[in-house]
Amino acid sequence: MTTAIDRLLTLDEFVRFPETQPASEFIAGRIYQKPMPQGKHSRLQLKLCTAVNQVAEDRQIALAFPELRCTFGNRSIVPDVTVFSWQRIPFDADGEIGNVFKIYPDWTIEILSPDQNATKVIGNILHCLKHGTQLGWFVDPSAKIVIVFLPKQQPVELTGQDILPVPEFLDLQLNVAQIFGWLKPVKN
User: 129 vs 5, 11, 58, 85, 173, CA distance in Å?
Assistant: First the structure.
């Protein structure tokens, strides 16, 4: 969904608008509202953040955030999952995590929702890579694939037991089947 504004906006104009639910993104002078996350999307988002934070938070290596607004390179986007190495996280004067992230993530993960425009989502991953992001994942729950984006390399489609790359600062090993296995919670 785009805004009904007839002219292109500036980033400064966009950041003065109130937040929306679901979040809106600013791309090339226009505002696009993200689709409301549904079950599979929400489950994958939760589990990915949890997996990263379990291995990285206590050791102050990195933090994963769901739906965090990142404003850089004349865009303001809200990737489904962002991961920041510890030294790049903006902390405020009280030592708490800051509210505003005017930086690119170290790792961006986008989970394709039904009826979402894949081209726009991939465009956001490419924008992140252009500005310094080390790794991008495009997760497609319906096709059960993860397309991996690395700077200055061709994207790679991974499936099944393929091991997914993670940033060098993380000690985390996941494969594609494991990611999509999270969609079938085990009853105890």
Answer: 29, 20, 27, 15, 22
What parts of the chain have a pLDDT lower than 50? Answer: 1-4
- Report yes or no on 16 lying in a domain: no
Structural domain of 166:
37-181
3-state secondary structure of 138: strand
Q: Is omega for the bond preceding 79 within 30 degrees of 0, making it cis?
A: no
C-alpha 134/C-alpha 91 separation (Å) is 21
- 188 inside domain: no
Give the pLDDT confidence of 121-147 residue by residue, as tens digits: 999 999 999 999 999 999 999 999 999
What total of structural domains would you count in the chain? Answer: 1
CB atoms within 10 A of CB 75: 19
Report CA torsion sign: 124, 130, 135, 138. Answer: positive
Compute the distance between CA of residue 46 and CA of residue 18 in angstroms, rounded to an integer: 25
CATH number for 157: 3.90.1570.10
Is residue 56 within 8 Å of residue 165, measured between CB atoms? no
Q: What is the largest CA-CA distance in the chain?
A: 55
Q: What is the pLDDT of residue 120?
A: 93
Asked if the structure places residue 47 within a domain, the reply is yes
User: Is residue 112 one of the residues assigned to a domain?
Assistant: yes
pTM given for the model: 0.91
